[in-house]
Structures are given as C-alpha cells and as structure tokens.
Amino acid sequence: MAPISEYINVLVYLAVALAIGVLAVVVGAVLGPKRPSRAKLMAYESGNDPAGEVKRFPVHFYAVAMLFIIFDVEVAFLWPYAVSAGGLGLTGFYVLLIFTVLLFVGFLYEWFKGVMKWH
Amino acid sequence: MAGLVLLVLASGSVFAQDSANLYPQDPLWLVAVKAFLVVFGLLTAFAYMTLVERRLLARFQVRLGPNRVGPWGLLQPLADAIKSILKEDIIPTRADRLVFVLAPIISITFALVGFGLIPFGPPGSFFGGQPWVINLDVGILYLFAVSEMAVYGIFLAGWASNSKYSLLGSLRSSAALISYELALGMSLLTPVLVVGSLNLRQIVDWQDTNGWLILFAPIAFGVYAITSLAEAARTPFDLPEAEQELVGGYNTEYASIKWALFQMAEYVHLITASALIPTLFLGGWRMPAPFPDIPYVWMFLKIAFFLFVFIWIRATWFRLRYDQLMRFGWGVLLPVALLWFLVSALAKALGASNAALIWLSLAGIAVIVAILVIRGIQVRNAAPKAKGVRA
Fold first, then answer.
1. Which residue in A7, A116, B106, B328 is a FRET match for A41, CA 20 to 30 A apart?
2. Rg (chain B; Cα; Å)
3. B248 or B136: which leads in pLDDT
C-alpha cells in the first residue's frame, strides 16, 4: 500500500496546477484593455438580440447522464474484481457474470427503447 | 495556517522514511519542484504542439504552415500567447460571473494533474529523485476521476455563459465525454485484470517481464485508443470545437486568456492520452530486448508517435454527427469492451497462462476482422441500390 504522504504529493501537485490557472486568468485580466460596451457584452446570437433566459434543454441529455451513472457504478463494482481476479477463481467469475448480465439486460432494454436514437 | 503547513511537511518526511524500497519517495520540496516542472513542461509542450500541429496539417495538405514568426515559425506560439494575454477579457452581461471565471480554471487544473503519475523511468532516475510526481496505488482510478472533472469545466462554462449556443454546445460535449468515459473505464478493466494492479509503475514493470499489454488485450487497446481520441475531443469526435456547427460549442462566449485556457486543457488532455496509451499498452519507458531501456527517451518517442498519429487522423478524417457519435460509443465501444473483459476474466478464472491469453487475443482480433469484413461486404452490396435511387 502506498503511504499517506503520496496523497499529500497529490495535494501539492493540485495546488501548483491551480496556481497556474489562477495566475493566467489574473494576468489576462490585468494586462488586457478594458473598453466594455453594451453590444460587446451581449450574448452571441448571430447578431440578433438574445431572446430570453435559456435554462431548458432536451430530455435526451438527462437520459444519457442517468445511464452514465448506472454504468459507471457498474464499472466501480468491476474494478475490485479486476484487481483480485486471480484469487477469486471460477466462483468469482460466475458472480461477476450474473451481475454483468443483469446490467446488460438493462442496457438492451435501454437500447431497444431508443434512448440513443435521435430524431 | 503555518502550523498546518508544518504538520504536512513533518508527516511527509516521516512517511517517506518508513517505506524505503518499494515506494521510494522524494522530499516535499522536490515534489513541488517536479510538479512545477511538469506543469510548465506541459504548457510549453502545448504551445509547441499547436505549432507542430499547424505545420504538420499544412504538410499533409501540401503547403507550408506558419513560418514567418521566428525561424521555421518557432516563435509563433509565443506570439499567440502574448496576443491572447493582451486581448480584452470579456465577461458577457448576462453571464454568471463567478462560474464563468471558475470554469476555465477548473478545466486547466484537472487537465494538468492527470499527467503527474506517468512513470518516465526507474526509481531514482530523475537526478536521484523519482521520475514521476505522484505514484498512487489507485493510479488508474485517479486518472479516471481527474479526467471526469473535465466534464465539469465544459458544462459549467456552457451554463455560466447563459447563451443558447454555449449551453447546447456544452451539453453535447459533456454527453459525449461521459459516454466515452464509460467505454474508457470498461476498456481499462482488461489490462488491470491481466496485471492485477492499478499502479501505473507496476503495470509498466509487469510489461517488462511479460511482454507488452497490447499482446494480451489488443481489443481493449483499440477501444482505449478510440475513446482517448474522444476524451481529448479530437477529430472523429471533435464536436466541442466544431467551428462550422453551433457556432463553436461551449466556449463561444469566451475571449482572451480564458478561451486559451480551454484550448490548453484540450491539448493537455491529448498529450496525456498519448502518454497513457504507451504506458498502459506499449511498455511505457521500457523497450524489449534488442533495445536498451533508456528512461525518458523511449517515452518521449512514443508520445511523439501518438501525437503524430492523432494529427494525421485530424488531417484525414471527417467528423461524426452527434447521434452517430453517441450510438458508436454506447452501441459498439461499450459492449465490445465489456465483452472482452468478460472473456479475459473467464480465461483468468480458468487459470490460463500468458501464452493462452495471447492466443485468445489473436482469436478476438480474428472475430473482429471477420465482423468488419462481413459488414463491408453488406455495405458494398447495398451501395448500388442507393445509387440507383438517386439516379
């Protein structure tokens, strides 16, 4: 097992990377010219006046996100099996197979229900 | 605050001592220096990557590419950087100001932190230090988590811009990213299964004794290579930067350095991907017998090779439509990766030897080729009909 201090290294690395991002944004904000005008600050809509707030989007994206969560949980359960597959033998494999087939039936249902179709 | 820093420093040195051999560790200041070097190296690599890409694309199209600013255009990235810093930094009136500023920072931060755990040599080959920044036992999970954070940057950017085009572009991009992220996870299960470790260093060492993982998991390699193209938003899957569609995607409202940060994040993802493919499947910094193991050199060559291939693909391929992209990710890549994982798991459970695994891979490749050939014949037979309809 890796010692805890490896995770402190992760924090150090994260801090350095974050500092670079913040530095870039600050330098850009300081050095650039600042001549705002109403037209310049308008949202881009091909020259039209932007119409209304936009916070609605097709339900398709919700479906994709939910499916992602389901299958990402599946992958999360598969990692421990993948690491220790050598010691689990055939019994372990059968259990893995049952779990995967259950989820794959769900996948087939989703597929033939047409979530991934786009009209 | 100072007490906390001292505590962290102290615990770092204590832990570094008790795990001497298997996990050689650097003092914290050296880790910080290495993190700094890696980050700056990546930013320089990104800058020159843009130049190399433009030059290479030009060569593919029998023209010259940027060659005016400096000898062979070598100062072009510098000129671009200065320009983007000196441009006016616009925040649209209706944007959510905090999130609008935060999104590019999130993007670049989590793009940069993925690279640190790739080993470039044996322990102690960085002037006595370690040739990696971090060496986690859960390395692949860490990569997975960090690359999923890219979705946040993209989605928050589109949402905070408060513009129709940005929102739609960001939704498309993040839906594509999470879909391919899934196939990526599924494809990485197989090498983990074969090696039995999530630690990148151990995966590289395993490949030195047993042979490159591409021999044992060629289909996982294929799926992984394709998904990493999508993760870095490269050509067949480059909807986020589709200039001709939806006026460009999630970064429509961004200007100056913030826009550059998104581009930077994308290229850093690309560089990380082209470093991870050789690390996981092609022996990392090691080479088989006739070649000597030279730390760094082989790794840089392999990274350069994959970057070249990615640019080549960009020059020669068309872009997928959004629905084709989703159907390909969910309908082909995900089941294929899962199936291959199950087959390998069965072989492993039956106690198959490494040689048996290689034969299994050959059989797998044969099946895939057969399916492609049959499909090709079908398409070819169907083609004249479609032409007849048109005429």
1. B106
2. 23
3. B136
For residue B154, the one-letter residue type is I
pLDDT, tens digit, 9 for 90 and up, residues B365-379: 888 889 889 988 888
Q: Closest chain A residue to B140 measured between Cα atoms?
A: A79
CA distance B217 to B300: 23
Q: What is the DSSP letter of B320?
A: P
The verdict on a CB contact (< 8 Å) between A78 and B198 is no
Q: Please give the structure tokens belonging to residue A66.
A: 């939910």
Q: Which of B9-23, B70-84, B222-236 has the lowest mean pLDDT?
A: B9-23
The C-alpha of A97 sits at a distance from chain B's nearest C-alpha, in angstroms, of: 7
- What span, in angstroms and rounded, lies between the C-alpha atoms of B368 and B370? 5
B306 contacts B313 by C-beta, under 8 angstroms? no
pLDDT for position B20:
43
pLDDT computed for residue A78 by the predictor: 92
Chain B positions in Cβ-Cβ contact with residue A72 (cut-off 8 Å): 181-182, 185
User: pLDDT tens, B309-343?
Assistant: 999 988 888 888 888 888 888 989 999 999 999 99
Residue with tokens 């069965």: B346
Residues in chain B: 391
User: Could you identify the residue written with the tokens 């493919």?
Assistant: B277
Provide the whole-model pTM.
Answer: 0.88
In what helix (H) or strand (E) does residue B313 lie, and over which residues does it extend?
Answer: helix B297-316
Which of residues 238 through 277 in chain B touch A, CB cutoff 8 A? 247, 252-253, 256-258, 260-261
What residue type is B305 in one-letter code?
A: F
- The ipTM, to two decimals, is 0.88
pLDDT in tens, B268-303: 999 999 999 999 999 888 888 778 888 888 999 999
- State which residue of chain B sits closest to A24, comparing Cα positions: B257
Non-local CB neighbours of B153 within 8 Å, separated by 6+ positions: B103, B104, B106, B107, B108, B110, B262, B265
State the Cα–Cα distance between residues B74 and B67, nearest whole angstrom. Answer: 8
Q: Do B113 and A14 touch (CB under 8 A)?
A: yes
Which residues, 6 or more positions from A33, have their beta carbon under 8 angstroms from its beta carbon? Answer: B86, B88
The whole-number average pLDDT for the span B117-131 is 86
* B331 interaction partners in chain A (CB closer than 8 Å): 111, 116
